[in-house]
């Protein structure tokens, strides 16, 4: 199959490289000329484990190429994926579909012969109808089937998720697209990954419902963690105790500083807005959003309490800036709100992240250190915000010797209290009464 991926970011590049690895001929297109230039020179513009080797081997095999122009590749394609961003629209939180609509119009102008146009971006219900309308209006002769195929990969484990998905969801209204999409995913289909065909609107909603449910699950355990602190219980044991129940499941039950990232915050908001527009509000999700927003700043207050209630003029070391480990993605990272809360209270913040420093520099003004130890020098408190492996086995004696005061706030429950306290630290974790 000849596949074009419009948008070569976290989703487009991973999907494109994986499709090439399945044996398809893939062109990854992006408007950002510097991204395409880098990719052509063998430089991967994002950090995603294993992506460099996957791209390199498929480029070498001649199955994966990169372009800033979509006209030529689209005219020869069997399938064109739209994998552009759908950020929150400023002001009201609806998904901003500007990039999707623009991509649809550009694709329409270049289509030749029957082509399946697939929206992989996360888009509100009804977007497929609009994409189809734009294509037909721009090019009335275009022979297209417009399909929804949301992506469920997680950054940091994106290739594994793409190649071993729990399910593949395909929403279509034109039956001609069914054999094409089956062929696109043939290796996974043969591997028994469930391929779920639905209506286009259903498929669009599945993606939002999935993300909203996961965000709600995280928020649920975060509230239970707060209760644990009040009543003298241990949230990790509660998570295990409920997670072993097959009806509940153990995943997404890790208490922490609140969810962040490029998906959950914007997708929960977009779902809530869609639901309001249809006079069918999703109150659980509206509440989830409100709880999560306030939680991030509450984490700032937790740090301030750990240093005795006043952080003015004191140095705070922040370990981990990205929204989760194994990515360089800083979008909506809890670290942003936590750092802001600390700076607002007069703290001097120094931070370190294994892969997120370049992106973090665009988003916050702090002292950027070259290691956790450098960040901790003369600090009155260290805060573990993102559970990178690099922070799981810190040399606590060294850390203590560098700090002005040995205080560790562990927002990911990476350490055990008795271990850290044995090194002379005051230790604060999440959900342990
Ligand atoms: N990042 C994730 O973990 C993830 C997971 C599942 C779904 N999604 C969804 O996938 C979509 C893409 O997310 P992302 O994180 O890959 O975004 P991203 O910002 O990393 O990448 C989007 C890319 O599209 C490019 N682009 C925009 N308009 C274009 C056009 N007309 N032609 C060519 N290129 C264009 C941009 O330059 C950018 O490189 C979003 O809807 C997101 O919600 C993301």
Question: Keywords for this structure?
Answer:
433 residues, alpha/beta, Rossmann fold, globular, binds nicotinamide-adenine-dinucleotide
The Cα radius of gyration reads 23 Å
* CATH fold name of the largest domain: Rossmann fold
- CATH top level of the largest domain? Alpha Beta
- What count of helical segments does DSSP give? 18
Specify the helix fraction band: 40-55%
Specify the overall morphology.
globular
| Architecture (CATH level 2) name of the largest domain | 3-Layer(aba) Sandwich
Low-confidence stretches: none
CATH superfamily of the largest domain: NAD(P)-binding Rossmann-like Domain
Number of strands: 14
Distance between the termini: 57 Å
Q: What's the overall average pLDDT, rounded?
A: 97
What composes the largest sheet? 6 strands, parallel
> Which hetero compounds are present in the coordinates?
nicotinamide-adenine-dinucleotide
Task: Quickly give the structural class.
Answer: alpha/beta
β-sheet strand percentage: 5-15%
**How many domains?**
2
Query: How is the largest sheet built, in terms of strand order?
Result: 3-2-1-4-5-6
């Amino acid at each position: 199959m000849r596949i074009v991926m419009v948008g070569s970011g976290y989703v487009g590049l991973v999907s494109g490289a994986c499709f090439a690895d399945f044996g398809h001929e893939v062109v990854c297109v992006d408007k950002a000329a510097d991204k395409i230039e880098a990719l052509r020179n063998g430089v991967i513009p994002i950090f995603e484990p294993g992506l460099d080797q996957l791209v390199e081997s498929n480029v070498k095999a001649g199955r994966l190429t990169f372009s800033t122009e979509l006209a030529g590749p689209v005219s020869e394609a069997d399938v064109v994926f739209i994998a552009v961003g759908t950020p929150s629209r400023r002001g009201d939180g609806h998904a901003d579909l500007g990039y999707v609509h623009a991509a649809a119009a550009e694709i329409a102008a270049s289509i030749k012969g029957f082509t399946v146009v697939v929206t992989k971006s996360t888009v509100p219900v009804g977007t497929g109808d609009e994409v189809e309308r734009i294509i037909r209006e721009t090019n009335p002769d275009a022979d297209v089937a417009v399909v929804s195929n949301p992506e469920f990969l997680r950054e940091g484990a994106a290739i594994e998720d793409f190649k071993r998905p729990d399910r593949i969801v395909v929403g279509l209204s034109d039956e001609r697209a069914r054999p094409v999409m089956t062929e696109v995913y043939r290796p996974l289909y043969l591997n028994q990954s469930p391929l779920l065909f639905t209506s286009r609107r259903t498929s669009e909603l599945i993606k939002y419902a999935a993300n909203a449910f996961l965000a709600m699950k995280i928020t649920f355990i975060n509230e239970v963690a707060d209760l644990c602190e009040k009543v003298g219980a241990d949230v990790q044991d509660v998570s295990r105790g409920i997670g072993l129940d097959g009806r509940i499941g153990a995943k997404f039950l890790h208490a922490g500083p609140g969810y962040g990232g490029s998906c959950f915050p914007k997708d929960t908001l977009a779902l809530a807005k869609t639901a309001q527009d249809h006079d069918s509000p999703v109150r659980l999700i509206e509440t989830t959003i409100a709880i999560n927003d306030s939680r991030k700043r509450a984490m700032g207050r937790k740090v301030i309490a750990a240093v005795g209630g006043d952080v003015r003029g004191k140095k705070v070391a922040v370990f981990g800036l990205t929204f989760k480990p194994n990515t360089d993605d800083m979008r909506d990272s809890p670290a942003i709100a936590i750092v802001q809360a600390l700076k607002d209270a007069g703290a001097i913040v120094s931070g370190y992240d294994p892969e997120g420093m370049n992106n973090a520099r665009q988003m916050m003004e702090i002292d950027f250190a070259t290691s956790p130890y450098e960040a901790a020098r003369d600090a009155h408190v260290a805060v573990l915000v993102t559970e990178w492996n690099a922070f799981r086995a810190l040399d606590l004696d060294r850390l203590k010797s560098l700090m002005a005061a040995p205080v560790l706030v562990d927002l990911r429950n990476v350490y055990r209290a008795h271990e850290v306290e044995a090194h002379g630290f005051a230790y604060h974790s999440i959900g342990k009464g």
